[in-house]
Design brief:
With 75 residues, the protein is mainly α. The protein contains 2 helices and no strands.
Length: 75
């Protein structure tokens, strides 16, 4: 099993890439809200991390166990 499919950007599939991007953007929003807004975080905000982790896990399973597409032959 090729474990570089978990972290190497060129080996990630679209689900993993979207999940990592969402995770980074959510963490950035979390930091901005924590340091620059005096109100508490919106209720349920932390569930975003669980959703992104689940999305990444689904993408990882597809990446490890999915069948690669057959090469397209264009003439």
């Amino acid at each position: 099993m090729d474990y570089s499919k978990l972290y190497r950007p060129s080996a990630l599939n679209s689900f993993q890439f979207i999940a990592l991007t969402g995770l980074l953007m959510s963490a950035g929003a979390h930091l901005i809200l924590h340091f620059f807004v005096s109100r508490p975080l919106p209720s349920g905000f932390n569930w975003l991390y669980v959703c992104w982790a689940g999305f990444y896990l689904i993408g990882t399973l597809i990446n490890f166990f999915g069948k690669p597409d057959e090469p397209h032959h264009h003439h």
